[in-house]
């Protein structure tokens, strides 16, 4: 029973990390790049407006950062729950 609860806690934490990563990805790619683009047009980054920058480069950079964050956080979670690779 304790092992099952431990496994449930691990997967709940895993799903929470995935959910927040997807929320950040959606906010940056769809929110900043498409939906909020008219509001971001007045801010210039490298000669282009911020909404265009997020649509073209910012969402890609944030996606790469999310990959590294997910790997780092999952390694830490694995160690906390004793399921890490030695």
Structure description:
With 86 residues, this protein is mainly alpha-helical. The chain has a domain at 30-81. Helices cover 81% and strands 5% of the residues. The protein has three helices and two strands. It has a two-stranded antiparallel ribbon. Strand 1 and strand 2 (48-49) form a beta hairpin. Helix 1 (2-35) runs antiparallel to helix 3. The model has no long low-confidence stretch (mean pLDDT 89).
Characterize this entry briefly.
This protein is mostly helical and 86 residues long.
Strand content bin: under 5%
Number of strands: 2
Categorize the overall geometry.
elongated
Q: On the 0-100 scale, what is the average pLDDT? A: 89
Largest sheet: 2 strands, antiparallel
Helix content: over 70%
Query: Number of DSSP helices?
Result: 3
Keywords:
2 strands, 86 residues, single chain, mainly alpha, elongated, two-stranded antiparallel ribbon
Lay out the secondary structure.
Blueprint lengths: L1 H34 L1 H4 L3 E2 L2 E2 H32 L5
Antiparallel strand pairs: 1-2
Keywords: Membrane, Transmembrane, Transmembrane helix
Protein name: DUF4212 domain-containing protein
InterPro entries: Na_symporter_ssu (IPR019886)
